[in-house]
Every structure is written in structure tokens, then in C-alpha cells.
Amino acid sequence: MITLEPGAVPLEQWRAIYRGAGARLNTTCRAVVQCGADTIARIAARDQAVYGVNTGFGLLASIRIAPADLDTLQRNLVVSHAAGVGEAMPRPVLRLMLALKLASLARGASGVRPETLDLLEAMLARDLLPVVPAQGSVGASGDLAPLAHMAAAMIGVGEIDTPRGRFPAEQALRAAGLAPVRLGPKEGLALLNGTQFSCGYALAGLFEAEALFAAALAAGALSTEAAKGSDTPFDPRIHELRGHRGQIEVAAMLRAMMHESPLRASHREDDKRVQDPYCLRCQPQVMGAALDLLRQAGATLATEANSVSDNPLVFADTDEVLSGGNFHAEPVAFAADMIAMALCEIGSLSERRLAMLVDPALSGLPAFLTPRPGLNSGFMIPQVTAAALVSENKQRAYPASVDSIPTSANQEDHVSMAAHGARRLMAMADNAGHVIAIELLAAAQGYDLHAPLRSSDAIHAVHDEVRAVVAHLEDDRYFHPDIAAATRIVRSGRLHDIATVHGIAVPAVAHG
């Protein structure tokens, strides 16, 4: 169980929540939440126009709302904004979104009451997850549509996915011993304004990229050995002269993976290749740059995840409500674009190593890694599949943040597009995972062809991990199950663990 300290939740805890850990608030935050709610109550009682408390929204902000209609104003805001379309959010990302919203509101600057937070916390604890369509946010003025679907479930509208199935929201709440909340002044706006949808998807993409990054390094080391590549390009002196942290760390891991490899030693003196292809030789430069980019994205998202991103904001110490633009998700959009570029390049380099392995002119191995080419096609079409996935990721990697479209009658005239920029990352991670899996199979096949020579203990353990679930390819067989099995290895984190067990430091993508 994760205890959330609002404003100070590390990436490790967001990752744990995404992977299934429970979450609750530190109870010490209730006092500051109550102060914010009391401030809103005092302001609502005054004869003063305050946006989101007693006015309309967006271009309708100049319209005053009578005190008797303030509850209705908040309810109407929620149901009118629950206009999302498309498939429902996946449960892991949805749980993360709820936890992000919970921690943001608990900082006390949003003006919600403690009992409203209690309901959100209870829903998360009981695995009562609102059904939230994933399309409809432009990443500015908050992730309005998806967060409105979350808020709608809290007032008993829409549907909730429970451990027992999907039910109407009010029915699901009451079956769990909970009651829908009646929203007070500003509470509806606080719930549906913010970047938690975009940030949740971006964090999910970052966490998926972590496992893929470690797996790609392990697959790259195995491919280098299968191709009888050189470890000279991983010499630390080369990388220290350039100075990029990620490059230095990637080179160190690859060097450690190949350390004392009998297979490498067997051809060290009579290697006829002066230089390996870039896909082998430049792994530290490419993967190191991707690592640095992912770390930068992680730092941005760590800040955003702990932020207050709704509007207007409550300052209890001065009894003020100030309107600003913290809902604009430009930082998340940039971070998502960085993750997308990194995922694209990780998959692209992996596919190039795979293409090198199946080409006898480059690898020195049998064509398409089959002992009897012609009768058998071997890895011919798996490489085509990998090429298709890489091209698909290239198309998806176009920066979302450079796009904008005016909304709300031009009141909201510049938007971030963070929502779909972050949402695409899951599909991109899936594609990259399949590419790395196919490379892993090909690398294990190429490695087999050097028997009885073997590599270092670490690389041999990577090979054995593959062979535990996928047999050596002697003659053509139905390939799909092999790729599926290898993909499970890639996504599981096992290759990271293998390196760690052998005393090899795997560069950390997201920490702190």
C-alpha cells in the first residue's frame, strides 16, 4: 500500500500504483484540504464574481450564477463535459489517473471538501474504476472530457467497472457501501480540470519504456555476440571523451555483458572486419541518447505528477482565488513527444540489428538464420513484421506538441495536444516490444549456430531465458507463438533482472 504525500510522491510510487499497488492519502493533508474548502465557502457567500465558483465557464465566465443554483452549476458542468468517445481507458492507467487526481486535490489549493476526497480515495481502494472513454481531450483547460467522466461516476452518473463487473455508477457505489457525492461550489471544476489524464498516460508510457530499454540492451548484447561483433566500441575511453551520461552508462553495461566471453575471445585476433555496422557499433550513442531523453521526460513528469493543475486556485492564507493556466499540459506534451522519439529509436535500432543478423553478407551466418535456406524461410518474414512495426512507430512519433486547434469559441485558442500525444505511447511501446522480441529470437538463433562456443555467463543466461520458452528453429514452424512468448520475456523485466543477478548495472530510466 502506497501512502501518498501530496506534492512529494516519487516516480517509484507512481510506478508501483501503475503496476497494481494500492494507494491512500497521508491523513495529515486533511487540515490543509479543509482550509481550502472553507475559503471557497466564504467566497461563495460574498457578493463577488469568482470564476468557477459563481460564474459560468470558459467564454461564459461573465455570466453570474445565483447562490441557489451553485450546486446545479457544478453538476451541469460535469455531465455536459462528459462527452468523451472511443474505447475505455485501460485499468492500470485509470488507476494511475485517479491517484494523480487524489494527490493533486489533497494539496488544498483546489477548494474541494475532505468528504469529496474521501469518496475518490474509497473508490480507488475498492477498485471501483469509472468507465472513461479515452478520446476527447486536447490537453488544455484540463483533460476536461475524460476527467468529467471520472467526476460523473462520483455523482452517480455513467458506469463503474468493479471487481464483479460493470454497473451503473450509482448502483456500483451503493453496493460498495458508498454514496454519490453532491458537489459543492467549485468542486466539479476542480475534479475535471487538470492534466491527470495526459500525465497518467505519459507516465504509463515512461514505465513501459523502462522494461523495453533494458530488454533492448540485453538483446543488443546477444546480437553482438551472435554476429561476432567487437567490444572495442564499448571501451570507456571513447565515451568519456564525449561525456554524455547515458552513452557512458550504456557502453559500460554492454562491456560488462560481454566481459570474459569465450565467443568474443575466439575471434579477437583474426576478426576480418575493421568496423562493425552502426547497429552494433553505435549502440551506446543511440541508446544512450534515448536514455538521456527518457530521463528528461521522467523529470518533467515527476514534477507534473506532484503539481496542482486545475483552475482557479485557492490561496487560503490570503482568502483569494486566482485564475491562471496551470491546466495547460504543454510540459506533458513535450515529455510525451520525447518518450515517443525514444521508443521509436529503440525499436528502429533493434530492427537494424535483426536485419543485419538475417543478412549473410553482414552477419556471416546462414541466410535468414536457417540451416537449410530455400526449403525454409527462417526469419525472413519476422524481420518484415519488425520493419512494419518500426515504420508504424515512425508515423506515430510525429510531435503532438507542435499541433494546436482553437476550442471554446476561441477562448481556449492554444492547446497542447498532450492527451493523444501521451495516449499513443502504449501502442508504440507494444510495437517496440514486439520488435525487440523478434530480435531476441533471432539473436538466440544466431548464438546457437556458434555452438559449442558460448558467451559470458550474463549473455548465456539471456539466451537460456529465451530457450526456456522457445526452442531452436531447425525447420520452419508456426512463428506467432514464438514471438508472443518472447514478447512476454521482453515486457516482464526478466532481462533486467538477469543483468542485475550477474552484477551488471542496468542504467535506470525513471527514478526519484
TrEMBL record:
GO terms for molecular function: histidine ammonia-lyase activity. Keywords: Cytoplasm, Histidine metabolism, Lyase. Its main location: cytoplasm. It catalyses: L-histidine = trans-urocanate + NH4(+). The modification 2,3-didehydroalanine (Ser) is found at residue 141. It is found in: Cytoplasm. Pfam families: Lyase_aromatic. There is a cross-link at residues 140-142 (5-imidazolinone (Ala-Gly)). GO terms for biological process: L-histidine catabolic process to glutamate and formamide; L-histidine catabolic process to glutamate and formate. Contains an active site 4-methylidene-imidazol-5-one (MIO), which is formed autocatalytically by cyclization and dehydration of residues Ala-Ser-Gly. Its EC number is 4.3.1.3. Pathway: Amino-acid degradation; L-histidine degradation into L-glutamate; N-formimidoyl-L-glutamate from L-histidine: step 1/3. It is an enzyme of class 4 (lyase). NCBIfam families: hutH, PRK09367.1. This is Histidine ammonia-lyase. It comes from Sphingomonas naasensis.
